[in-house]
Write a structure and sequence with these properties.
The complex is a heterodimer of chains A (about 325) and B (about 260).
Chain A (H helix, E strand, L loop, with lengths): L3 E4 L2 E2 L2 E2 L1 H17 L3 E6 L3 H7 L7 E5 L7 H15 L3 E5 L4 H12 L3 E11 L2 E8 L4 E7 L4 E5 L14 E4 L11 E8 L12 E5 L9 H11 L2 E4 L1 H5 L20 E5 L5 H4 L7 E5 L7 H4 L2 E3 L3 H11 L2
Helix pairs in contact in A: 3-4, 5-9
Chain B lengths: L1 E5 L2 E5 L5 E2 L2 E2 L4 E5 L1 H15 L5 E7 L5 H9 L4 E5 L10 H15 L3 E5 L10 H9 L3 E10 L3 E7 L4 E8 L2 E5 L11 H9 L2 E4 L13 E7 L8 E2 L4 H14 L5
Parallel strand pairs in B: 1-6, 1-8, 6-7, 7-13, 8-12, 9-12
Antiparallel strand pairs in B: 2-5, 3-4, 9-10, 10-11
Helix pairs in contact in B: 2-5, 3-4
Classes of the chains: A alpha/beta (about 325), B alpha/beta (about 260).
Chain lengths: ~325, ~260
């Protein structure tokens, strides 16, 4: 009743980093509650994954060897049954595309309140207080949950990865999967964003975002990229609009890039974008909103209208 | 074949704003159709135009103000709308509360396909579609950025992280949560806007849906601006001056040399 059950994630044979972050977050909450931390490893090479996840702070790892890849019907069923068995206070999941494909179903089936995309969490007695953002990261909020049993998804990259070696009990869980309730079929994977250019190889990227307003203005940043000998990339809205191809997209659902210089033009710096470019050595932001989150990670900034600054910058290099 | 599209009116915040208690001061908010739902509406209207869907019904949970927004969905091609509001709704409606309301609507409407935006731009829970699917026991797929539908099986691409897509087949009736970029949402035509004035927006309360009341177990207790941890060197002056200083830095770093 005071335990935490964290559901780990893997994809195509590899544990995802967020699995180790779930261990850290789960341990913190279990300490608040004075309970144990249970991990679940579902599908794929469960023994190998359980070995890797035997980190300090983990009490028990439950393995369910069923299928290879993520299937939301299997994850939902297994999590539901483990929760019935362990009666944990918190079911902790990752706020990833797959986490959001089964987490809400688990919460609804078990009648637990759900808090998603959490960036901080703690218990005061039996009340969970979660920190999460709203309005595209413009504000942070604290949310209190008035239930002793909750489901939470944590945002990747907010907790450290658990490090030290541990010695958890590893046990096979018989989930007795109801195959008739497995109703979606994964038929394959597809890599997107191939093509003429690999932005992850570029040393200098000129990257354009929503602030460019119109498709015809893309030319302006193309001209800058040319003047700087740089490669052109973009944030999600530009690709969604079809103004640049998918292989130019930087961010969580696009490419991760680590250029020497990254020049963000009209990009606000939403968390999904930052996830793909925070490894750049030098980050330059040109954005007229001084509160834009891009300035949190920028090394240099110009808080001004990009339609004035970019032509002036092109002139400098011509 | 009937498609139900969940649409939300969301608030967007100006660059400069003030917080009043646990909410953003109304003066700094603008209301609009949720971006993700715009794509969901477009997808449903395209299915209707392709003859795969006979009727597109938009459903929203929102106060009277949101009629303007849901009328945009009608102007873009939805056939009719249902708006749920109850005086008991105040503060944050959590995923479970929204699910309960939408479940009652689904029981009324019996749709074959439900399209729901991946998330709303204001609360950003990203969970209502999948939660609803579990509540009504429909198969589902989340974060769909490509859809082929033959009238029975929805073959979708789910947009995973890192430029990888998962290909999944889902049998209908089903719930799909729709990601931005799946299509190119149309602008409402003048004709569409005129026609939308004639289309029905049914207003319903919880009692109309046979519900006693819904409760949120989540309470928003605090709202604040996150601390800006910027240590960026910000250049000041005219565009020529700032561009000149930035150019010097870039040259030092070996750019365009």
């Amino acid at each position: 009743m005071s335990d935490v059950l964290a559901i780990t994630e893997h994809r195509r044979g590899e544990l995802r980093d967020v699995s180790y972050e779930l261990v850290s977050a789960g341990r913190e909450l279990a300490d608040d509650l004075g309970g144990d931390l249970h991990l679940a490893v579902i599908s794929g090479q469960v023994e190998e994954f359980a070995g890797s996840l035997s980190r300090e702070g983990v009490d028990t790892i439950h393995t369910v060897s069923e299928g290879e890849e993520f299937n939301h019907d299997i994850y939902t069923q297994v999590t539901e049954r483990l929760a019935d068995e362990l009666d944990p206070s918190v079911i902790l999941m990752a706020n990833t595309v797959n986490g959001l494909d089964y987490g809400p179903a688990v919460a609804t089936r078990l009648g637990r309140p759900l808090v998603t995309d959490v960036i901080g969490a703690s218990f005061d007695g039996e009340t969970l207080t979660a920190t999460r953002e709203m309005y595209g990261s413009k504000v942070e909020t604290r949310v209190e949950v008035g239930s002793e049993e909750v489901a939470v998804t944590i945002r990747p990259g907010e907790w450290p990865e658990a490090n030290g070696n541990g010695n958890p009990e590893i046990t096979e869980f018989d989930a007795a999967i109801d195959e008739s309730a497995v109703r979606s079929t994964v038929t394959g994977f597809e890599e997107v964003g191939g093509g003429d250019v690999d932005i992850s190889d570029a040393e200098v990227l000129v990257s354009v975002g929503r602030g460019i307003d119109e498709e015809e203005n893309i030319e302006l940043v193309e001209e800058l990229a040319k003047a700087l000998g740089a490669t052109l990339s973009a944030s999600r809205p530009i690709v969604d609009n079809g103004w640049l191809p998918k292989n130019r997209q930087v961010g969580q659902s696009g490419k991760s890039v680590t250029p020497e210089v990254y020049i963000a033009i009209g990009i606000s710096g939403a968390v999904q974008h930052v996830a793909g470019m925070k490894g750049a050595e030098t980050i330059v932001a040109i954005n007229d909103d001084p509160n834009a989150p891009i300035y949190d990670i920028a090394d240099y900034g110009i808080v001004d209208d990009l339609f004035d600054v970019v032509p002036a910058l092109i002139a400098e290099f011509e | 074949m009937k498609a139900l599209v969940t649409v939300a009116e969301v608030a967007t915040v100006e660059d400069e704003f003030e917080i009043d208690g646990n909410a953003i001061d109304e003066r700094y908010l603008e209301y609009d159709l949720n971006e993700w739902d715009d794509y969901a509406v477009e997808e449903a209207v395209q299915l209707s135009e392709d003859g795969l869907v006979d009727e597109v019904v938009a459903v929203t949970i929102g106060p009277e103000r949101s009629e303007e927004t849901i009328r945009m969905a009608l102007a873009k091609g939805a056939d009719r709308a249902v708006r749920i509001w109850d005086d008991s709704f105040d503060g944050l409606l959590d995923v479970a509360a929204k699910t309960e309301v939408l479940q009652a609507v689904v029981e009324d409407e019996q749709p074959d396909l439900i399209l729901s935006g991946v998330q709303t731009g204001d609360a950003m829970f990203g969970a209502t579609g999948v939660s609803l699917a579990a509540a009504i026991d429909y198969p589902w797929a989340a974060v769909v950025n490509d859809l082929e539908f033959d009238g029975e099986i929805a073959s979708v691409h789910r947009e995973l992280e890192g430029g990888v897509e998962e290909l999944t087949d889902v049998e209908t009736p089903a719930v799909l949560t729709i990601q931005t970029g799946i299509n190119k949402p149309r602008y409402a035509s003048l004709r569409g806007i005129r026609q939308a004035q004639q289309k029905e927006i049914a207003q319903k309360t919880l009692a109309d849906l046979g519900l006693d009341g819904v409760e949120s177990e989540l309470e928003l207790t605090e709202m604040y601006e996150p601390e800006v941890e910027s240590d960026a060197t910000v250049f000041e002056g005219s565009a020529e001056e700032t561009a000149g200083e930035l150019a010097n830095v870039l040259r030092e770093k070996g750019v365009a040399q």
